[in-house]
Amino acid sequence: MNALTQTLINAAPGLMGELESLYKDIHKHPELSMQEVRTAKIAADAMEALGYAVTRNVGKTGVVCVMDNGSGPVVMLRADMDALPMAENTGLPYASTVTARDADGIEVGVAHSCGHDMHVTWLIGAARLLATNRDAWHGTLLIVFQPGEETAEGARAMVNDWDEGRFPKPDIILGQHVMVGEAGTVTYRPGVTLSAGDSLKIKLFGRGSHGSQPQTSIDPVIMAAATTLRLQTIVSREVAPTEPAVLTIGSLQAGTKENIIPDDATIKLNVRTFNEDTREYMLKSIRRICCAECDASGAERAPEFSTINSYPLTENDAAATEKVAAAFNSEFAEKVSLAPAPASASEDFSVFGRSWGVPYVFWFVGGTDPSIYTKARQDKAINKIPSNHSPMFAPQIHPTLETGLKAMLTAASVWLCAEAAA
Ligand code: ZN
Ligand code: ZN
């Protein structure tokens, strides 16, 4: 018998209506990474009204809320708040029409195409039910609203700003993400559940010249082209076929005009790995190949490498995941499943647990209309369902809202409702 889930939800009439309005409001007012001022204020004000000790502006726009409710474990529940620099194309009545200036000052559309609006709504709902039912649990709750997940800045910024002793150190950190999957279902995986993601910018230096006099140049276009092809051999020739890895060159830029050999070329690439050794190996190989190709071209200056962003592996603690899975199984029965493989997506959620040496569990909640999902599965067309980061991404509000709220409470109750002697 779980004291914190369906009973609490049933005992809060009107809660789902309120949360639905909140979700639509946040959805309509998305904010870019590290600019989540309005969303953070909504979350912080709501937590303050519920009696949490609220600290604002942790890691720029992050919010940390603490509720001490007797002896017991310190449980941290985290939601990310940021939206993406893209226009929404869902056609929903509550779709975003917001535009904003990104970090480079460029005007961009802004949309909650990764579902972080749902994460904030789940967490506010869970925090509210826990605050208004303090006799049902004991311990300390840390409710964390994190900025800048999409740029891999937010968790790091919060950890840097956490300060020794400023907030209690958690015993367990829990988080969840909405993604393509039948709404109403929950998926988990012990161990590696999300890939590491590393994005690099590599500048290759040649020597510019007139297009008619190649002999006076060191052509960075040739250098970049050869480097691009050679980099593809890391996954195909250097990494074992049983080890999943991705290397995508998403941007390749050089020159302005057909008869000018440019001075330099810039490659931007993204690496996804599922194992720390493979990650380190690939990052080393990328450097080796870039330097060697520049040498091969006779470049007079070594290439310049800079990190655009870096997401660590999300590696769930096996024992903690087992406890969460047992609670999910009793709460969701056939609606819960073990993911067959890690997902090739990345998160900065694990930065908290990695920085503090604290176990963490991160799981997924399906957000796709079940009839659409079932039909897509029959048609072998699941890949055609608009996924996170698609301008068409549109989670079905019900029962996704209920499911994530229940999942968060269920997982938290493993620690918050544990017997003192356990
Ligand atoms: Zn995302
Ligand atoms: Zn996300």
Short description:
The chain starts with 5 loop residues before the first helix and ends in a 6-residue tail after the last helix.
Bound small molecules, deduplicated: zinc ion
Question: At the third CATH level, what is the topology name of the largest domain?
Answer: Aminopeptidase
The succession of helices and strands, N to C, reads HHHEEEEEHEHEEEEEHEEEHEEHEHEHH
Number of strands: 18
Largest sheet: 8 strands, mixed
Average predicted confidence as pLDDT: 96
Over all CA atoms, what is the radius of gyration? 24 Å
Q: How are the strands of the biggest sheet laid out side by side?
A: 1-2-6-3-7-18-8-17
Fraction of residues in β-strands: 25-35%
Describe the fold and architecture.
This protein is α+β, with helices and mostly antiparallel strands and 422 residues long. 35% of the residues lie in helices and 26% in strands. It contains eleven helices and 18 strands. The chain has helices at 6-10, 15-28, 37-49, 116-131, 154-160, 220-238, 276-296, 318-332, 350-356, 370-378, 397-416; strands at 53-58, 62-69, 74-80, 99-101, 107-109, 139-146, 172-182, 186-188, 191-194, 196-205, 209-210, 245-254, 260-261, 264-273, 304-311, 314-316, 336-338, 360-368. The chain has an eight-stranded mixed sheet, with helices on both faces. A four-stranded antiparallel sheet has the order 12-14-10-15, covered by helices on one side. A two-stranded antiparallel sheet has the order 4-5. Helix 2 (15-28) packs antiparallel against helix 4 and helix 8 crosses helix 11 (397-416). The longest helix has 21 residues, at 276-296. Residues 114, 116, 149, 177 line the site of one zinc ion (ZN).
